């Protein structure tokens, strides 16, 4: 679960393509990426096109680890609970998580919105996470840092910055959000996500725990050796989702304005997660929604989120103005210099 790559938006200039040419477009992109078990799944105005590196059909594809690309699922869950009137974005997290517990004034001021938008002032991970994780850094760094320890680390935190003043990508913050939603509703994050997001969208092949005997993809080291399934410990809300390519397209298609209907999650939740919310970086060049990174393109804004686990890589994105959604994944974590992320991001800027 790492911070998404910074991506420079690609310029669009290729001619429009018909349905029959989209498979070729995906194949061209795949040839630039040296990654095992590569899958690129594209939906354009309701028509799906897949590229598989292996001999596979969409119905046979395994579930892939999303890593940080799980965060839009948690963000949509929050938006759904707010749209239903069960919570407010401005609710203080500590007050919901541990009412009456003494906390630092800056922690007391952290809201649910701060946690999901990485503006809480919390670090990427708790300070005491690293000593226990280092002996298992290449296999299971999160496995021995359970939920109660995440909560305790939050309640004793001393943020470096006042909430709402700085953007700093934080697995810690989104994990705290998951535990806060559970405390506020009396329901586990896993059950909440299942009942409020996954089941209503028909994502019945999506899992929140490893199930290697039931179709999970196996990640690999750069030398090709297999890795164990990701154990997220107490950081489930930041990176525990596993999904098939077809389920991911269904999830993304639901974010497209013409697809969001009055059923759960409500249309208001999808509108909230699409809406530009904050800017950061030099000249405030980077735009974010509640849950997505957002770039401009010649064919309308592109919303996206990348994710990586120890042995897998993921990219999710959609272009609301043209009814386009894309998911790409492979079973090896790529280096920042590899073309996986820039190549699949560029596909979303194409004139299709």
Description:
The chain has 352 residues and is of the alpha+beta class. It contains 13 helices and 10 strands. The chain has an 8-stranded antiparallel sheet with strand order 2-1-10-9-8-7-6-5, sandwiched between helices. A two-stranded antiparallel sheet has the order 3-4. The longest helix is centred in the middle third of the chain and has 15 residues.
Q: Considering DSSP H and I runs of 4 or more, what fraction of the residues is helical?
A: 25-40%
Question: Mind telling me the C-alpha Rg?
Answer: 19 Å
The largest sheet, given as strand count, sense and whether it forms a barrel, is: 8 strands, antiparallel
Uncertain ranges: 3-16
Mean pLDDT: 91
Fraction of residues in β-strands = 5-15%
Shape: globular
Secondary structure tally: strands:
10
Strand order of the largest sheet: 2-1-10-9-8-7-6-5
Tally of DSSP helical segments: 13
Order of helices and strands: HEEEHHHHHHHHHEHHEEEEEEH
- Sheet/helix structural class: alpha+beta
- Termini distance? 31 Å
Précis, in short:
By secondary structure, this protein is an alpha+beta fold.
Topology of this protein?
Elements: H1 22-31, E1 39-44, E2 47-52, E3 64-65, H2 71-83, H3 93-97, H4 105-108, H5 112-116, H6 129-133, H7 147-155, H8 171-185, H9 189-198, H10 236-239, E4 242-243, H11 245-253, H12 267-274, E5 278-280, E6 286-288, E7 293-295, E8 302-308, E9 313-319, E10 324-330, H13 340-347
Helix pairs in contact: 2-9, 2-12, 7-8
